[in-house]
Amino acid sequence: MMIQSDKNFAYPILPGWDKTDIIVTSKFYSAIANAYEIGIDRQDLLESYAAFKTVVPSKSEEKQIGREFEKDSGYSIYKTIKFAHQTTSQRIKMES
Question: Which of 5, 15, 48, 79 has the smallest C-beta neighbourhood within 10 Å, fewest atoms?
Answer without folding.
Answer: 15
